[in-house]
Structure formats: C-alpha cells, structure tokens
Amino acid sequence: MKKKFSNMKQQTFMLCATLLALCFLGPSAEAQSQPILCLSPSEGAVFEACDAYSPPSFEWETEDTYKSLEIQFFMQNTSKTVKVKVPSPSEKRLQLTPSVWKKVFLLPGSTGGAVYWKVIGTRADRKKEESNSPSFQIGAPKAVQNPVLFPTDWSLPTLTWKTSCHSKITVWFGADGDFTKSKKFSFTGSIPPEREELFTYQLTSKDWNAIRNLVGHRSGTRIYWFVEAWDGLKRRGATDLMSFTLDISMDNLPPSIILDIPPLKTVPGFCYLESFSMQVSYLDDSVTIEEVFTFAGIGATLSYSSYGKAFSPFPGTDWTMSVHTRAIENYGMQFVVGHDVTGDDGDYLKGGAISRMTYSGHDEALNYLKALIHSGRPVQVHVDLFYLPSLKKYQVINPGASHFLTVHGYDSDSVYVTETYLVENDKDQFKNVRIPVQEFMEAWWAGGIPPLKGFWGTTGPYWMVFFVERESNQLNKASVTEILNMQRQLSAENESTIARHLKSDFSNTSWNRIALMKELFAGYLADNGYAAAASAYRQLAEEYRSCEGLSLDAKRQRLIDIIGPLETQARTLYWS
C-alpha cells in the first residue's frame, strides 16, 4: 500500500511539473511546435490597385512531409474562401496566377480590407495540419490625385490629375451640387497601366461651351465637378466635390477703379476701330492708329459696292465685324463677346470670339462690366448715342445712333470712357469722360434695340467685347512682313476694280475717306522703313482727294489714267 501511494505521488509530481513548464513556455512553445509557418507576405502587408496586375508569391516553412498542400485565403466572420492547390507537397513557395489573385483581391469586396491566409498540409494518414494565419490588407480603390481644371476663365482649360492604375475615368460637371443638370466626359486608362501616370486633356471649344452652358455662360457663377475612376477590377473611387467660379468673381468689387488709357488721334467714322485702339494701346503704348487701321486690312485696298454706289477703302465685301476681328487677330489677341440673354452677339462668335458671355438684365451686366475693369481689362461696348448727352463729342437728335466706345472705369454712380480725338487741343477733354451710370445703362441697352442707323444688325442688349490678355507680353503681333503680305493680297485687284466699275454709279464715293486710309497706310509704311512706298501712298491720297468737285467724266479720266496705274506701282514698293 505504501508503494502504491509512492507511485501516485510521483505521477502527480510529474503532471504538475509538465503543466508548470507549459505555463512558463506559453505561446512560444506552441509556435515552436507549429508544423507549418507562413513567412511571406508578412503580417500587415498592403496591396494597392496597381498590385492587382502583379500577383505576389506566398512562402512558408516546414520540416514535415505531407502528401499534399493547400493555401486558403479567407475573411474573418464570413464563409468567403479561395482555395489553391500547391502543385508539389515539397514546395515552400507559390506564385499565384493572375486569375486566382484577382479572386483573392476581391475577397473583401469593393472597399478593400483584411485577407487572412494559411497553409494546410495533409499527411499520408489524411491527418491535416494548419499553419498560423497571418493577414494582409487589400487597399481601398483610390480616386485620381490632384485634379485641376485651369484656367476657368475664357481660354480653353486643361484637365490634369494623377492616375493610379485606373482603367476608366469619368469627370462630371454640374450646375449645382446635386448635378440636376450635368455634363460628363469619359476617358480610358492605359492597359496594362503604369503605377502612376499624369493625365492631361485640353477641353475642346465644344467641350468648354457645353460646360459653360450649364449655367447659361453667366460669368461669376459656380460650376461643380468631381472625378470618378475605376481600377482594373472595376472598383470605383471618387474625388470630393469641387467647384470653381466661371471666368471672374463679381464679389467684393472695390467701389471705384479707373484704368489709365491715353487717348489716340484718329479719323472719324470708324468707331469700332477707334475704341479698339483704346483697348490695345492700354496693353501696348507703342500702338499707333496707323498700325491699328493697317492691321485691320484697311489702307492699300480699294473695292466697289453696288449697294452703296461707291468705291470704298474696305477690303472686298468686308463689313464692320470682319474688319474689327481682323485687327484683333493680327494683334494675336483672344477676345470674348458678351450680351444680354435676350439678344445676340452680332456674329462675333462666328468671327473668332473664343467664348460668349450672357447676363440677365441691368444689374448683372453692370456687375460684369465692373468685374472686368477690376481685372484690368478695358471693355468695348456698343451704345445708342442718343441716350448719352454727357458724351458731348457727339450731337445726336434721333435714337438709333450706333456707336462703339471703350469703358475703363467706374465709381458708385458713374462709368468712365476715353474717346479718340482729331485735334491735339481736344486731347484732354476726351480722357476719363464721366457718364452717369443710369444714362450709360440706358444707352447700352438701347444699343441692342433696332433700328440702329449705320449698323449691320441687332446685337446685345448690353453688347461688349474684351480681351483675355492683360499684359503686352501676351500679345502675339503679326510681323511687318506678314502685314504687308496681307495688304498686297487685299489690294491685288485695285486697278482692275477701277477699270471694271468706271461706268458704274459711284456717286456716293467718299473720296476724302479713301484718302485718309491711304495716308494712314503711308504712315505705317514710313514707321517701318518703307519710305518710297509711303511717298507713293501719300501721292495716292492726294489724287483721290482731288476727285472731290470734279465732273463725273473728269473723275473717270483721273481714275483710269493716274490713280489705277499708281495703285499698281505703289503696291510694288513694299515687297520684302
């Protein structure tokens, strides 16, 4: 009995010792006894969208022998599992195929999350042993990075952002944050993708026009936008909601601004070029009126109008808009046309305007005008002079007197304009002419209401033209050679034009106006080193002016004998 008790005591001691040892060894003892140990990817490794195209290797360690091995990928608390057979039980590394990796990548769903994995070994006796279960992270789908739309004024903007293995991208624009009225553009990413690419796309005029039209082309309004993108696994990411102010802000305008515009000496009857000269000379003080008219294509040319029953200094069948926009183009300027929503732009959009602005009524038109002046841009407007008694340069007794002028300042109850002058002594009185704002607004509105005498059609109301450029270095002026080539082409048929229309009715010809245009062109030629050509055009001016007061037969004789041949000769004197 004593021996039996002794054996029981010994067994109890051994059991306690064993339990005590296990307590001291704790989890490390269990780890050391793990038959299969997962090594790579390490715990917490992260796989982003770009990694979906590059399946990783999975590695483990074991010294035991198994009949077969299998890797299982799974989610905690779900039944989702992807099982992969290891080709050989002796292998300790497996490179996943793209199709299997795609299934693993999508285990957490479209938002990403933790995926666990383990290796299961099956012995010959069918007993299974499992490894530890480390996890790795599948990153959430990403939005494009650093989305930018610039500029947001009147030029065609460029979209840029950084993509990260996106296969499809859609950018949305809306008139409000709910996108109740919207426009979208879709783009395809590169397949196979780079890990990160800079995406750049310049909107076309059609694109930008459609976006602007969401808010009726109304400057100062907000347009909302965001970008959504899908990666190669069709998981969607989106940027936060963004917005921009279309063109320029009309908020917090200062109470008074007057831009300093020096008046230029000019000739009457071409107010659209006169006021344009004010705008361009504000950017470049080297501009002369001779240059402005020459850039407009007037000077060398001579045409005939059966409608007007007159010879004319206009090129061919050109009219106001054509001459005006040719001058703008030759100064390398981008222009914008604006008007009230009830009117039209006078074909200036067709004539080369890069954008069109609209505004609803008195207050919005005035605020926009002020915002443009605040931005450093003089504004050309079209008015009815009948409603401008404060502009004492003109005496108008009936409505419908079409006139262009340049507005370059404002205060709380006035706008300020500068006009060209004829006589040097009158120069100062046409600078910073103050016009009461209500008087101006009435004239500006009436400038778009028919009938308008001497004007080609109805524009506006509240019609304007202004330029994107604000600095002289932004101009891209045509060279002297280019301008003289243009003038040669426009005047190539002068002598034959005279010959063809000698028997026509040219009784309404303004010989003095033609002479003035020849003198302006002569001035441009002289300024640019063509003295002989300048002298010839001054002589032409004298010959045209001498037609005033002659009989019809005497005019015809002078045109065919003197003026026609001299037109041809003068044209040969400014070849480069």
Describe the structure.
With 576 residues, the chain is an alpha+beta fold. It has helices at 2-32, 98-105, 205-213, 271-283, 289-295, 320-330, 361-374, 437-446, 480-490, 494-500, 511-527, 531-545, 552-571, and strands spanning 36-40, 45-47, 57-62, 68-74, 81-85, 93-95, 113-122, 128-130, 135-138, 145-150, 158-163, 166-174, 182-188, 197-202, 222-231, 236-238, 242-245, 257-258, 303-305, 310-312, 335-340, 355-359, 379-384, 402-410, 414-418, 433-436, 464-467. Helix content is 30%, strand content 25%. The longest helix is centred in the first third of the chain and has 31 residues, at 2-32. The radius of gyration is 41 Å and the shape is elongated. The model is unreliable at 1-32 (pLDDT under 50).
